[in-house]
Amino acid sequence: MSGTNAASGAAPCRFAHYFVICGIDTETGLEPDELAALYQWLEADRQGRDPDTAAAGENFEQSPLKRTFKSKVLAHYPENVEWNPFDQDAVNMLCMPKGLSFRTQADSREPQFHSFLITREDGSRTYGFVHTFYEEVTSPQICSAMQTLYQMHQAENPSSATPSSSSSSSMDSLASSLDEADSPSSSSCRSAACGGYDASRDTLYVSKALCLITPMPFMHACRRFLSQMHRAVTAASPPPLPLESYVHNILYEVPLPPPGRSLKFHGVYEPIVCQRPGPGELPLADFPLGQTFTLLGVENLVQLFNCTLLEMQILLYSQDYQRLMTVAEGITTLLFPFQWQHVYVPILPASLLHFLDAPVPYLMGLQSKEGTDRSKLELPQEANLCFVDIDNHCIELPEDFPQFPNKPEFIQELSEVLLRYGISPVGGAPPTSVPTTTTTTPGSVSTRHPGLKSQQALRELEDDGRNGNLGGEQLAVLELLQGNATLERLQALAKRTGVRVEALRGVGGEGEGQGGRTTVEEEELRNAKLNVQLREVFASRFTTMFADYEAFVIQSAPDLESWLTNREQMHNFDKASFLSDQPEPYLPFLSHFIETQMFATFIDNKIMSQWEEKEPLLRVFDGRIDKARLYNVRAPSLRSSNYQRCTVLKESAQAIEQRLMKIDHTAIHPHLLDMKIGQGKYEQGFFPKLQSDVLSVGPTNNKWSNRTATAQRRKDRHRQQTEHLTLDNDLKEKYMQEARSLGKNLRQPKLSDLSPAVIAQTNWKFVEGLLKECRMKTKRMLVEKMGREAVELGHGEANITGLEENTLIASLCDLLERIWSHGLQVKQGKSALWSHLLHYQAREEKLEQQQAESPVSNGPERRKSESSIGMPSLRASVIQDMRHIQSMGEIKTDVGRARAWIRLSLEKKLLSQHLKQLLSRQALTKKLYKRYAFLRCEEEKEQFLFHLLSLNTVDYFCFTSVFTTIMIPYRAVIIPIKKLSNAMTTSNPWVCVSGELGDSGVRQITKNILEMTFDSAFRPHTHIDAMFKCQNLGKLTTVQLGHDNSGLLAKWLVDCVMVRNEITGHTYKFPCGRWLGKGVDDGSLERVLIGELALPNADEDFGRGCRTPDMQHSPGQTRRVSITSMGGRGYKPTSAQIQEAIGEAVNSICKHFHKPEKERGSLTILLCGEVGLVGALELFFHNGFKSARLFQKTVFVWDFVEKAVAYMESADQMGDMQETAEPLGLTCVSLCHYVSAINSSPRNIGKDGKFQLLVCLGARDRLLIQWLPLLVECPVIQRMYEESALLRDRTTVNALIAVLQTLHDFPITLEASLVKGIDL
Q1: What's the rounded Cα separation, in Å, for the pair 877 and 905?
Q2: Which string of b and e fits 471-505 if b means at least 16 CB within 10 Å?
Q3: Is 689 exposed, middle or buried (0-12, 13-18, 19+ CB in 10 A)?
């Protein structure tokens, strides 16, 4: 035990934690791979077959050489490391993801290298680097077992002269054994040998893996060390020291390089150099980014990067494990200063295939089978999936996501960096300079000089980068060379003496690189420089975009404990203010990105840095921002969308070059250990059994190990003290874990136990996670939407911008897609939700035809029919809304249709109800979903629908505002006042409906389409009903209603006009309560009516929808006395009420202009609506007005204006006005001009309509306050107004002018329906 402790004492600073050997256990013999059996069980379950029968029994259809067998961890040193416990199952599974594979001498046996990582629950990572090679099987029992299996296979399949074809199962790509992914030559070799095995003539080989497990990703160094270990075994002469010396050296005597330093240690044959970035530099990333860009191309990689930032589901697909790892690590490296917070499995073993069902964001790598067609790969969900086919250099993107800011300039800058290193930005082609250390797939190496093929092939053979094996074209070249006696002698001599051919190569001019570095070292330096320069370009984008992020972080908690306790309720970042400070082109991307988990975690780390040591990535990022501020890099371009190029490319590359040129530390050389003599005798081609006693204990006299142990103890003591001062340690740990896991899901599936019970438990975690996410999302949507009320309740941000709202709704659509994808039996189409809806539609349509005549209707239908007695009921059903979506030609895909359906249901406040209806068909749900699916968990499903129901408390226009170009049917119902004689008209009526997006144009209505309906008391009501179709008008604002005054009954008393959007069901009420006709009321033949959305939940409103409401009724304003009620018959508002009404109207207009432009809504309602400016000024002008009837003729305010203008014009002609000051004279002219233009308009809008128009034009052109004194000074006022009138009180008029003056700061624009036909 003491040995273990000694070994682990310095573990945090050791270069490697474990050395592992995996392979076949000759004692237990051949065992079928349990994981392959589990895979079959899962696959059968997925396809709806009985899983137990499918997994039972041996699989004799496949040749035993193609089947997978159980591998084991044969040895690992040391036994255990205290802070990185050895996980035997996980390491075995990831070292040999597809188990053991067998070969004969006829097959290609090229060694393979791949990496993997294990993510622990706290998010920390351990890296593994694996060198897999083939070793001859010497056990007679295993050879005879293989012979027996082959004979049984032949007996089962007498016709199998050729290797069996691959299974048709869509997910079979993971179950295949390693052979399919090897060299192109393997298939031809195998068919030549008929894929058979005969123990008497064939030599059997089995795969074996050497693995180093390290705390940091020193990929190049580990790769070179392992390949040298393999070379030592295959070389003709034994290595200089026993292999135990080298393993002991790398485990216990090689430290991690200190930050900002380089380290040299020794392999079996050559020294190996690695370096670590300094504290202010980007963190270590040793996987070759150049290769990632080569495989995908810049354009594809930037798109993949964007999808990763927006936390979509990302699936990498390649035959080569190392390619999967290189792309996965490359893309997560580029996220600096952010970190991927979700499931991260770069290599997904066959047994974890069910994890693709995970309804959460993930980044996973799937190994493909050679020749597998992508179209046959059925993935559980694709609505939000970014599929990356690495080998074919292409990606499939999800629909409809925002682009990364300044994308063209960003791609241009990256392309320039790549071209400097001879790499094509287009991708798909190998680099122009072939890195011997980065090529892992046989046949993918290409050379620039065909004439040098022979040299290249021999060099590849001797160089450790290829481990003495070649594939494809170079193998053929080598065979030609082997006839050359001189070369053969040189080769043998090189092997005997251990001299590197690399050193002799200098004679031919190809030898060492600059400064005495070998070609391999030169290549590694080049890779390291390219890596850091590409990463700097990415990091520079974030430094520019988030230069001011700190100003928007909300530091609301006094200490860490209270912050952690209330973490879920707190707002940590002022999103609305941050977005309002950004350049317009950045907003679509940023509004999505600041909603992600990685951004939330970044902000959490920032807040926690007040009380704790800064998280390393945050420290580096903040340092860069401070440096940028120091040099004023960003100040001039604040809020600018101009692209800023990275300025530190040269320095970053120089820092790496200097570290590699001047080695800071050299580790102790490998040396002889105190070992028993005679054990582990060298036998060429076989990896010996190592002596475990010397490898389980590290040296006790290491200076650096003692130093780091002391430092660690000091750090621990300090941490314990601070914890004791603030919180009880356990409590703090609990809070920490809860806070950090907030909103996060499983990082990596458990690799140890993969029983069906554990899989079920994993799925249960997903169900809980989805429910929690639904709760958080709906709460966020409600809080944001409730605005001012929410702020008063202490929830933070007051305004939600349309952009934010759209982001939140898009995020809800994504969540619903993931819920509907969880636990699908068989995937159909890219959208699981739409697929379910189509199944439902097919079942219901027959039923619906039978129910069409039935009087029974469901809840929403009844609700809609109540909205107005004059309106026929609107069918509101799941199917009806689907038909609306299906008829929209603009939407081309299933994913788009599902999202449009969600938006429509949300706008209609029927989302929860529709989904409840959809899930009520339990037989259908059972047919489509497995038993563990979210949609089959009754309690969670109920809670989920309840959370969605809460969204009905707020109004969304998320369908109307997004699909602005679609054609929408509208129904207009004109409801006359109830006396039948007034309801009839012989003239030809027309309407023109206007909204925020445009108007319908004048629509003629066939006269006397008189319909009669009955209300609940069976009283008859008549109305005119018209249907028309036009492009989406958005939220409706005004209706122009008129007629042509023809026929005997040309006078028409109209109560109101109701207009309904037949798709969304939104009904707008446009109150009128006036006559249309010559010689009645104010003589108007046309009126502009201002509308408001009819509230569907006020039952008393519905009841009155068709009866004449009392003039003082105001459905829109319940909180204060309305202007209409003030102006009603028999009621005279006081001067204080009138002045308050004017103040409120002006205040509303000011507030309107202080909102973001896209959030302002309709200005027309604020000017002409029920509590608008026009109505308030009418009250002012009516106060003290002598409107007594003279010979049955009513006098209107407009009469006063006309008389005043007539007086001014006559006075001007007589010369009285000439003495007036010039500005006053000009004002006079403008008033006369405007009144004349309104009077000469071809429209018949009546006297009140003309006064409304004058007020609107005066407000627009900032003339109102100049016209008022003219009207007050005019002598006409004395004849038409009483002494006590407000208009004759100078103080009140001056106060009114001061209030109206505030409108001059705003650019008032008038809707076309108001100013139509006015020529100024």
Answers
A1: 10
A2: bbebbebbeebeeeeeeeeebeebeeeeeebbeeb
A3: exposed
Task: Determine contact, residues 1074/1057, Cβ cutoff 8 Å.
Answer: no
Q: What is the dihedral of CA 1096, 1098, 1101, 1103, to 10 degrees?
A: 90
Alpha-carbon span 252 to 705, nearest angstrom: 9
Show contacts of 642-649: CB within 8 Å, 24+ apart: 643/406, 643/409, 643/410, 643/413, 644/540, 644/544, 645/413, 645/540, 646/413, 646/536, 646/537, 646/539, 646/540, 647/540, 648/536, 648/540, 649/417, 649/533, 649/536, 649/537
More confident of the two residues 751 and 570: 570
Residue 450: its pLDDT value, please? 37
Rounded to 5 degrees, what are φ and ψ at 819?
-65, -45
CA-based nearest residue to 78, from 683, 699, 667, 669: 699
| Rounded Cα distance, 847 and 861, in Å | 17
Cα–Cα distance measured from residue 600 to residue 575, given in angstroms and rounded to the nearest whole number: 11
| Largest separation between any pair of C-alpha atoms in the chain | 134
Alpha-carbon gap, residue 327 to 321, rounded angstroms: 10
Rounded distance between C-alpha atoms, residue 115 and residue 347, angstroms = 9
Token output for 1089: 């009516």
Per DSSP, what are the bridge partners of residue 385?
Answer: 313
The Cα–Cα gap between 275 and 278 comes to 10
Q: Give which of 263, 294, 313 is closest to 534, Cα–Cα.
A: 294
| Amino acid letter, residue 326 | T
> Which is higher by pLDDT, 3 or 102?
102
pLDDT in tens, 378-407: 776 777 889 999 988 888 888 878 889 989
Tell me, rounded to whole angstroms, the distance of Cα 1111 from its chain centroid. 52
Q: Which residues contact 1177 (CB under 8 A, 6 or more apart)?
A: 1142, 1255
**Where would I find the beta strands (DSSP E) of 653-812?**
665-666
CB 860 within 8 A of CB 894: no
**ω into residue 78 within 30 of 0, thus cis?**
yes
- Measured over the CA atoms of residue 231, residue 235, residue 237 and residue 238, the dihedral's sign is positive
Chain position carrying tokens 């509004």: 591
Of 954, 675, 668, which Cα lies nearest the Cα of 800? Answer: 954
Q: Which of 307, 667, 661, 345 is nearest to 514 (CA)?
A: 661
* CA–CA dist 265, 221 (Å, integer): 9
Q: How far is 1107 from 976, CA to CA, in rounded Å?
A: 9
Distance, C-alpha 994 to centroid of its chain: 36
- Burial group, residue 409, by CB count within 10 angstroms (0-12, 13-18, 19+): middle
Share of the chain above pLDDT 70, in %: 71
Q: How far is CA 268 from CA 184, 214, 241, 265, in A?
A: 32, 19, 8, 10
d(CA 1142, CA 1302): 12
Q: Looking at the DSSP assignment, which residues form a beta bridge with residue 130?
A: 114, 211
pLDDT digits 0-9 by tens, 890-933:
888 888 888 899 999 999 889 999 999 999 988 888 888 888 88
3 state SS of 1089: strand
DSSP state letters, 507-574: GGT-S--GGG--HHHHHHHHHHHHHHHHHHHHHHHHHHHTTTGGGGB----SSHHHHHHTGGG---B-
Q: 1229 is written with which tokens? A: 């002219």
Q: What are phi and psi of 1266, to 5 degrees?
A: -85, -30
In this prediction, residue 41 carries a pLDDT of 56
CA gap 151, 157 in Å, rounded: 10
Q: What share of the chain is helix, strand, coil (3-state, %, to 5)?
A: 50, 15, 40
Residues in the chain: 1320
The answer, yes or no, to whether residue 722 has pLDDT greater than 50, is no
